[in-house]
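Fold this complex.
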Amino acid sequence: MTTQLHKPSIILVNPQLGENIGMVARAMLNCGLTDLRVVNPRDGWPSESAIRASSGALDKGVIVTIYDTTQDAIADMHWTLATTARPRDMVKEVYTAGSAMAETHNKIKNGQKIGVLFGAERTGLENEDIALASAIITIPLNPDFCSLNLAQAVLLVAYEFMVQADQTPEKQLVTGKTDIATAATVANFTDRVIAEMDDRGFFKSPDMRPTMERNLMNLFTRHTWTDQDIQTFHGVISALIKE
Amino acid sequence: MTTQLHKPSIILVNPQLGENIGMVARAMLNCGLTDLRVVNPRDGWPSESAIRASSGALDKGVIVTIYDTTQDAIADMHWTLATTARPRDMVKEVYTAGSAMAETHNKIKNGQKIGVLFGAERTGLENEDIALASAIITIPLNPDFCSLNLAQAVLLVAYEFMVQADQTPEKQLVTGKTDIATAATVANFTDRVIAEMDDRGFFKSPDMRPTMERNLMNLFTRHTWTDQDIQTFHGVISALIKE
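Structure:
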C-alpha cells in the first residue's frame, strides 16, 4: 500500500442509525480508508452509538465530515460511483465491485479523487443521487438473497480496493524458526530408511530395492518439509528400530 | 454459478453469541453458501437470537449442524482451511482469501469437499484447531486495525468464493429501454450542429470548419451515447436555434 496516493472516500447518504455509521468506519479502517462523508444523518452527529460501534476506528484514523446534500459531498470528486443492489432504469455503466476498484486505482494514479455513494439502510440510494454518479457498482451476490447491511456493503468495496493494492504473496509457507529442508536432507532421510529396512532383511530380492526407493522418495518429494519435520521423522525411525 | 458442484462448508468453532451465528448465516447465503457447521456453541442451539440476526437466511437455505469437536465437524472434508488474523508459529501454507478460494474451486472440480474454520469472537482459533487444518487463510487487512467481526470475516471468504465463480461482465452499460447510438446517428447530429452554426455565419473563413468538425466529433466519440441521449441533444439544438 502506498501512503501518498489518494484513497476513495466513502459517502453515506441519509443513513439512519449511528451504530451503522460506526460499523462503516470500522470496516473502512480495516481496509485502510479514512475519509467518511455523511450526508444528512437522520439521528444527528456526533453520535455516541457510532463511536461505540466503531471499535475505535473513529479515534484511530477515520475522519467524519457532515454535509447537507450529496452534491456538496461529492463536489471535489472526479469520479463518483453509486452502489445499488439491482440495476435501475438509468443509462449508466455498471461495474462489479472488483472492476470498479481496479478502475479506481487507475484513476487515482492519474491524480483523480474517487467517491463511493451508499444509500440509507433498507431503501438504498434515491434515483436523484444515482443520477449524480459517474457509474454504478452492483456487487454480484446470490440473486435470491442479496440484502447486505450497510457496513458489509462498504466492507466489500473497501476490501476490493485494498486487496488490489496488496503485495502479500498469494500463497506462502510460514515455517517459523526452522528452514525448508533441501533435497539432500530429504534424500539422506529416505536413504537411511532404506538402509534400516535392508539391515532388517526387508528386501528378499535385490531388485525390490530400486522400486521401494523410488516410491519412498516420491512420498516425500510431493510435499514441502522443514528441517524440523525431517528431524521428527528421524526420531520416529530411531524409536521404531530401538531394540 | 453451478448448482451441481459442492460449495465450501463454513465451520464455526466455539462461537459465543447466537446473534453472530445468525449474522454468519446471512453473510453465507448472500454468497450462496448453505452448509454451516457449529462446534460447541457457548449459548446453545437452537437460538432465537441467531434466527433474528439471520434476516431469514436460516429459513431460506442455510442448514446448521452442531458438532462436539472440530475433528467431528471436518471428518468428511478433503481440504480444511483455518482463518487467522496473524500467522502463528506453525509450519503451514498461508493463503490470501482470494487464492484460497481459487484453489477451493480447483479442488471442488476434482470432487473434493472443502471446509473453512473460523474461531471464537475475540480469541480466534486455538492452535489445536489450526493444527487440524490443511492450510491457513490470512485476509490481508490494514495491519494497524484488523479486527473483523466474525460475520465480516465469513463474508469476505464467501464473497471471494462467489465472485470467482461469477459470470457477471466486469463492466456493462445498462441502457434501459433505449439502444446505444450508432456512429452514423452521432455523426448525423454533429453534422447538423455544424450546419446550423454555418447557417448563422460562425465560420468566418472556410478552413475553420474542418477543425471545428473534428473537435466536435471528438467530443462525442469519447463517450457512449444512447439514441435517447442524441434525441435530447437534438432537442436542445432545436430549442437554441428557435427565433
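Chain B touches chain A through 56 residues (CB under 8 Å).
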